[in-house]
Give the backbone structure.
Amino acid sequence: MRTLFLKKWGRKAAVEVSLVFVTDSQIRKLNERYRHKNKATDVLSFPMNVKDKRAKLLGDIVISADTAKRDAKKKGIRFEEELKFLLIHGFLHLLGYDHEVSEREKKRMERKERQYAKFLGGI
């Protein structure tokens, strides 16, 4: 994914993201605490927007493996494909995309999801 950042941050830019896999119970607690929604969700993103000389620290992506497994089964896709989609989705949130703002922004984010999925070998 590094090449996707070159235009935005330059050739020598390093981007750091932490990725955490949790259970439905754990993500429900995070969702309640930070979004005031008392339910499990598939992915949460926590932007950091910290820069230093070596890296741009984008933030954290938290994925519920429980929800990802269920959703993959419902969609008839492999678990790994669902994880890839959730990683892309969470990453786009770290970059500032927000599908909940408007229908226009939702479509813009979906276009980026397809672009990144294609870059990573499809979903």
